Amino acid sequence: GKKIGIIAVDPTSPYSGGAILGDRIRMQQHFSDPGIYIRSMATRGSLGGLASTTADIAMVLDASGRDIVMIETVGVGQDEVDIVRVADITVVILVPGMGDDVQSIKAGIMEIADIFVINKSDHEGAERVEREIRALQSLATRVDNWTPPIVKTVATEGAGISELAEAIRNYEEYMEKHDLLSRRRTRNWETRLIEMLRDRMLEKARAAVSEGDLARYAADIAEHKRDPYSVIQEIAARV
Which candidate, 34, 73, 171, 227, has a CA 20 to 30 Å from the CA of 146? Predict the structure, then answer.
């Protein structure tokens, strides 16, 4: 009986500027469900795995009374970690066949997982993925002393979904017991406020500098007549 909001983020093509937004197609069986709202978004050049307004949309869905807001990022990589500054719980989904890729992404996305999911766990290589995750977990201890569980699923058959839901509930209880959720949200909002302030100041700075001034500044720097730091100081003084 819960109301769900889903934000599905897809990458934007650097060539055409378009995005497939295929997640809506995969979830079309839920379109008619009045308890589920699906919003597809394109990154439009934003890095970090999210669109620039993903956090704003999540806040609107939360304010609208959605009990759960789910965010799907663009995919797996070292830099797609902005989700950890938006979500209360981060689930990292891996699939067999990645091989050494699990090792290659450990410097980024592996550290943000609260729960690991190995999807397509009926395929060859699932056990290897699990071993590699456990090997990486043995190298470091999280600040909150939580050990992310590893859940195996076969999404097309619905296998492992109840186990995943239980793992999420367990982490929710762990955060509540150790007062982690409020601290995480406070830390996330500190980061968010800085980002909003940065964006606002950039808007004001751009409004204070005409296209002609910007071209003149750029030409002076390119011709070594001025250094960029003094130019920035001059612009900042006008804001």
Answer: 73
pTM of the complete model: 0.77
Are 85 and 179 found together in one domain? yes
Contact between 95 and 119 under an 8 Å Cβ cutoff? The reply is yes
Let me know whether 45 and 91 are in one domain: yes
159 three-state secondary structure: strand
Instruction: Report whether 49 contacts 74 (CB < 8 A).
Output: yes
Of residues 107, 49, 101, 51, the one with CA closest to residue 78: 107
Question: Exposure pattern of 37-62 as b/e (b: 16+ CB <10 Å)?
Answer: bbbbbbbeebebbbbbebbebbeebe
Residues 134, 167: Cα–Cα separation, whole Å: 17
Q: How many CB atoms lie within 10 A of CB 136?
A: 17
* Alpha-carbon gap, residue 180 to 114, rounded angstroms: 12
User: In which residue are the tokens 């601290």 written?
Assistant: 183
**Mean of the pLDDT values across residues 70-92?**
77
Based on the domain organization, do 126 and 172 belong to the same domain? Answer: yes
Which strands make up the sheet holding 91-94, listed edge to edge? Answer: 91-94, 115-118, 150-152
